């Protein structure tokens, strides 16, 4: 495999962002830094996060300036891909790579195809697992692309992480559908451990981790006291200046390294179930759960009552004939009024619905329900979390 490094002698022209970014891409002028992620119980380094940096000594060295310039130049996708490539190149080029490598993904360009260089790196057999890290911005903007990338990561044996959980209600609302392998608590939770909102986030994350086996990381640990707070919030791993500032990857070798994998194994197919909402529901729950149309009203009343007062609701749906769901609408509206995210596939909204079916998915951190109907086949209503999440993923793949 070819090893590539940026041309150190190249300097950026003092011109518009288009020319600056073109120079960065042409000469691969991105040099990532790495921050350790440690096991809070032992202090051993269990992973490293790659953080993008532009050409040293220039205004684009800072990642916010780099990505702002890339966006202005219309090159956000290529720059984001270059940053990921360089992170892998540096990790593969060191004599003592980390056990796992976290790489950030820019939500706005998640739907871009992988570059030939990235494919080469991914298929080269890295001696570590790669954890692709998203923020909650990807959840509502490109959910279909996020699920596709997550599915690809799992097929290669890698993992996904959801970053900044707790910073935005969207992150809690989408946890059941994305089901990340790693949940990273936003650093503001450490600063406000006694706040009611912090307790709510910690409870939801703890319940999710118990149900799915996800690993929880606390970000922003700066002192020994922060470690105690992180442990109380349910974190088992931590990241922050207390353990090391971002630096060259060779600096990671100065700390003891934990080699025992603690992130659950990949589950290919989880994020991209095959079939329509009705088919996935029946395949998961079995045809014994099918009932007649008379159950629809009672199921909708149950959903409405269960969701009342709960926060962070996600509502997903699909229909082909408006009359098929006319009786659903009054009860659904009670739920959508408090939802943080609502998306419906229909014949008049530009999104392809599932022929001959009507479906509804409602999910909150404390409740989940799916109602799937196929005329002539029956109605399936379920409150099983795994089934509801699978049906929701089918719908999200179309968005």
Can you give me a brief rundown of this structure?
This protein has 14 helices and 14 strands. The protein has 399 residues and is α/β, with parallel strands linked by helices.
Write the CATH homologous superfamily of the largest domain: EAL domain
Largest sheet: 8 strands, mixed, barrel
* CATH T-level topology of the largest domain: TIM Barrel
Q: Point out poorly predicted stretches.
A: 1-9
Query: Beta-strand level of the residues, as a percent range?
Result: 15-25%
Secondary-structure class? alpha/beta
Shape: globular
Distance between the termini: 37 Å
The CATH top-level class label of the largest domain: Alpha Beta
Strand order of the largest sheet: 1-2-3-4-5-6-7-8
Number of strands: 14
User: Helical region count?
Assistant: 14
User: What fraction, in percent, of the residue positions are helical?
Assistant: 25-40%
Instruction: Please give the CATH architecture of the largest domain.
Output: Alpha-Beta Barrel
User: If you average the pLDDT, what whole number results?
Assistant: 89
Number of domains: 2
Pfam families: EAL (PF00563)
Protein name: EAL domain-containing protein
InterPro entries: Cyclic-di-GMP_PDE-like, EAL_dom, EAL_sf
Domain EAL: 14-260
What does this structure look like?
The structure is a single chain. The protein is globular and about 65 Å long. The chain has two domains: 17-254, TIM Barrel, CATH 3.20.20.450; 277-396, Endonuclease, Chain A (2-Layer Sandwich). The chain starts with 16 loop residues before the first helix and ends with a helix. The model is unreliable at 1-9 (pLDDT under 50). It has an eight-stranded mixed barrel, surrounded by five helices. It has a six-stranded mixed β-sheet with strand order 9-14-13-12-10-11, with helices on both faces. It has 14 helices and 14 strands. Helix 12 runs parallel beside helix 13 (329-336). By secondary structure, the chain is α/β, with parallel strands linked by helices. It comes from Paractinoplanes pyxinae. This is EAL domain-containing protein. Residues 14-260 form the EAL domain.
């Amino acid at each position: 495999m070819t090893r590539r490094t940026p041309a150190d002698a190249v300097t950026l022209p003092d011109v518009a962002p288009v020319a600056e970014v073109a120079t960065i891409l042409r000469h691969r002028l991105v040099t990532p830094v790495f921050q350790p992620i440690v096991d809070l119980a032992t202090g051993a380094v269990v992973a490293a996060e790659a953080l993008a940096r532009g050409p040293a000594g220039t205004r684009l060295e800072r990642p916010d300036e780099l990505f702002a310039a890339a966006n202005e130049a219309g090159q956000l996708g290529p720059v984001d891909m270059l940053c990921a490539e360089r992170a892998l190149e540096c990790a593969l080029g060191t004599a003592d790579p980390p056990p796992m490598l976290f790489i950030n993904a820019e939500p706005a360009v998640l739907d871009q195809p992988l570059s030939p260089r990235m494919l080469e790196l991914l298929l080269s057999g890295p001696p570590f697992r790669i954890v692709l890290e998203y923020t909650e911005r990807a959840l509502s903007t490109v959910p279909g692309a996020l699920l596709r990338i997550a599915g690809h990561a799992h097929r290669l044996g890698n993992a996904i992480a959801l970053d900044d959980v707790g910073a935005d209600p969207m992150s809690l609302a989408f946890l059941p559908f994305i089901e990340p392998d790693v949940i990273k608590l936003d650093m503001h939770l450490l600063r406000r451990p006694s706040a009611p909102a912090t307790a709510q986030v910690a409870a939801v994350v703890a319940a999710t981790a118990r149900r799915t086996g996800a690993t929880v990381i606390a970000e922003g640990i700066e002192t020994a006291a922060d470690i105690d707070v992180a442990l109380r919030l349910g974190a088992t791993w931590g990241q922050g200046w207390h353990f090391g500032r971002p630096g060259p990857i060779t600096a990671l070798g100065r700390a003891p390294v934990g080699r025992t994998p603690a992130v659950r194994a990949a589950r290919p197919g989880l994020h991209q179930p095959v079939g329509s909402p009705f088919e996935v529901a029946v395949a998961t729950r079995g045809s014994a759960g099918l009932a007649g149309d008379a159950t629809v009203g009672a199921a909708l009343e149950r959903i409405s009552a269960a969701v009342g007062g709960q926060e962070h609701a996600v509502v997903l749906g699909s229909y082909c004939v408006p009359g098929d769901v006319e009786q659903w609408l009054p009860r659904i509206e009670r739920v959508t009024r408090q939802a943080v995210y609502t998306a419906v596939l229909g014949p008049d909204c530009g999104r392809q619905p599932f022929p001959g079916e009507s479906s509804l998915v409602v999910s909150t951190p404390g409740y989940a329900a799916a109602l799937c109907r196929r005329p002539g086949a029956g109605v399936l209503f379920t409150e099983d979390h795994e089934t509801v999440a699978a049906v929701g993923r089918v719908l999200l793949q179309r968005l």
